[in-house]
Amino acid sequence: MRKVVSMELLGARRVKLFRPIMEREVKKLVESISAGGTAAPVNMSRMFVSLGTTVTSCVAFGKARKDDHQVELLLPLIDQIMETLGGFSLVDLFPSSKLVGLLTGAHSSLRKVHAAVDVILEAIISDHAARSSKKDGDGEDVVDVLLSIKENNDLGIPFTNEEIKALILQIFLGGTDTWTVAVEWAMSELMKNPWVMKKAQEEVRQVFNSKEKLGAANDQAWMDQLPYLQLVVKETFRLHPPGPLLVPRESRETVEIDGYQIPATTKVIINAWAIGRDPQHWTEPETFHPERFLDSSVDFKGMDFQLIPFGAGRRACPGIHYGISIINIVLANLLYHFDWELPDGITHQDFDMSEKFGVEVTRKNDLLLVPVPYIPHHPE
């Protein structure tokens, strides 16, 4: 299944085909922020969540939330699953105890939500399968791709609607909040460190010196001209990995690591959040300093174990291309189109950066910012 996600759904080629969706929805985000004026603070946290669900819905189903009743019903249920997975309960302390799960109602609650999600996804799949005209490869959404794999037996193994539903759910659970949280933290760090904001903004505006050019900014060739913005993204992932705890692994045999004996079948959980702040690997680890990656080969793609926000090896996050693409698009547009201020009475020194633990580590308080539209001055 991971091969389907990484190669067919969220690989570099497919993400390139999804790029127009990302561009369109980010443009709407910019227009929405501009329409609100400059007097009152904007709740950027809510803006990012709305953008995330819209982009994922369009990529998965070809329709935004507001355009489809089934999608409208599905998204709150997915939110419930995320809250359940991110919360702490007695079941976490006693995972092998069926009694604890029954007494707390945790298992029953998840089963009910899953049953409701299953019904909605089955209806969405049926609607796609019933379409009289097939889309071409460039216009396919995720459900179209999965139905094509099923019909053509591309995997050479049984591939049913159950697998399709599982993959769709995986994309929503792992492909929405992760990048929206990263964008939220990137903007937070830029507000906390205005000298970094100034440098990143100057770079973006120098490269995209007209709004016409920014429309094509999301081509990778343009992004390669934004080296400092890429450093900002790296530093954001170091301090604020999308998931603080990576997907658990299980040891196949007894091994010894740094003097510790790990018995066979032990569940091992990697704390990516702690690794990114380890003073043995990072100078002034609590400081947001993108320049630390200048002339450094350290990257977040799984080859450098001091920075593994997406995991590493065969179990690394398959949606890395998708996440990085949309993060770059959002940040480039926000930095180009607006100057950003904190609400009255708040300075960058006392700007609250408190964290809230869950499946992701989010801001404890919503990110409220005042946008000031940027008007470029072009020579006559």
From TrEMBL:
GO terms for cellular component: membrane
InterPro entries attached to this UniProt entry: CYP450_71D, Cyt_P450, Cyt_P450_CS, Cyt_P450_E_grp-I, Cyt_P450_sf
Gene Ontology molecular function: heme binding; iron ion binding; monooxygenase activity; oxidoreductase activity, acting on paired donors, with incorporation or reduction of molecular oxygen
Location(s) in or outside the cell: Membrane
Keyword Iron: yes
Membrane topology category: Single-pass membrane protein
Domain of life the protein comes from: Eukaryota
SUPFAM superfamilies according to UniProt: Cytochrome P450 (SSF48264)
Cofactor: heme
Keywords, ordered alphabetically: Heme, Iron, Membrane, Metal-binding, Monooxygenase, Oxidoreductase, Transmembrane, Transmembrane helix
Location, primary (coarse class): membrane
Name assigned to this protein: Uncharacterized protein
